[in-house]
Amino acid sequence: xxxxxxxxxxxxxxxxxxxxxxxxxxxxxxxxxxxxxxxxxxxxxxxxxxxxxxxxxxxxxxxxxxxxxxxxxxxxxxxxxxxxxxxxxxxxxxxxxxxxxxxxxxxxxxxxxxxxxxxxxxxxxxxxxxxxxxxxxxxxxxxxxxxxxxxxxxxxxxxxxxxxxxxxxxxxxxxxxxxxxxxxxxxxxxxxxxxxxxxxxxxxxxxxxxxxxxxxxxxxxxxxxxxxxxxxxxxxxxxxxxxxxxxxxxxxxxxxxxxxxxxxxxxxxxxxxxxxxxxxxxxxxxxxxxxxxxxxxxxxxxxxxxxxxxxxxxxxxxxxxxxxxxxxxxxxxxxxxxxxxxxxxxxxxxxxxxxxxxxxxxxxxxxxxxxxxxxxxxxxxxxxxxxxxxxxxxxxxxxxxxxxxxxxxxxxxxxxxxxxxxxxxxxxxxxxxxxxxxxxxxxxxxxxxxxxxxxxxxxxxxxxxxxxxxxxxxxxxxxxxxxxxxxxxxxxxxxxxxx
Length: 499
Description:
By secondary structure, the chain is of the alpha/beta class. It has helices at residues 153-164, 181-184, 190-203, 237-246, 285-301, 311-316, 342-357, 369-372, 390-404, 428-439, 454-466, and strands at residues 10-15, 23-29, 32-38, 44-52, 60-63, 76-77, 85-86, 88-92, 97-102, 109-115, 118-124, 138-149, 176-179, 212-215, 220-222, 225-230, 250-255, 270-273, 276-280, 305-308, 361-364, 378-380, 413-415, 419-420, 445-448, 473-475, 486-489, 492-495.
């Protein structure tokens, strides 16, 4: 990319109808380019920038993903790279690496395409599936950042990610402990969570930084959706939080804040998309108040961590694995407030949650990675691992740990998901390796189990002590292996047998 000049590009604007009054302006500083958009009557949808140049060699290219990854992150040769690259990408010849992307918390969704003819960036400034109604307002859509490093690609990407997020929101201590999803899968109770907390207390005995016990989906009246009141198996959620705390364990709780089927929710509080009104519209004031009331209730019960889930799906209609270069596959719809871009709406929603949580930790799941940076303490960067199928843990967990590890402590604390232990479904020699690499990754470590044999317990006790330390870690065989086996940990080469 020797011929690349950040301020030498062509651009075009796409609106709902013919463009009449849309203006795009640019502000260049050393290594950055900010893009501003103004429109009065027009309803702009996209601003597309194209940098034309020839690439001298067949580089290795790695991109990011809109929300969680789905085992699909990998380096590809430039000649084979026809993928959309959300947010940023890195290209390398293994000795020199250049990175190109946008700063976190932009006011638009940004996706790149890179081929032998140059780079195209699509800035999606829509509201829902339609153009945004700015009414004369000027919005800063994004800030592009270009950097070149004479470093190996993983080190380059680590350095680059730290230039993208000015104010990461990070936990003060290492995050670890239990989560009941991958052994219970929604079938749990008050008593079982107390038992889970007792196990966590035993595993973390003598550690000053206390573990969490996160109660995942299944505690509420109707699984996967509100109203957020406990079902008969759980009963008093405040008493449960207090009992967990009495054991020296920190209680956490799960919620899907935009899916609520309470009878008194009026139609205007829901998004109209695809002819249906299902999910709460976070631009509606009454919906916002309801969301805040639920979070405040959970906080008053004494929970110290909120895991909020499903928001990308509920807002835009699909999981990330079905999205390409655009955040929604639905067209001709909009939010109640049509004056803000989709990215602005997501940012406002995440800020609403963060502010309502107060001193609670916020763990995002199915959250938009570049938008939640600085607004969640911990982010689930990959799709679900499993207590039933090793392939899910291997493909989703190991892949996201390797290829999004550069975001750890730069955007947020990475959560590559749980070590799931359910009966003997997954051989311990496999799960032990997943536990080991997580415990030395400086990311969050959650384990989902209700019982352990002596061997598992000994390994878990050791892992809980390892995670309290600081480690230096990087994947090595990343060019031709989406599930890297070779890792450098504290200067030592470790080979894992994932297959």
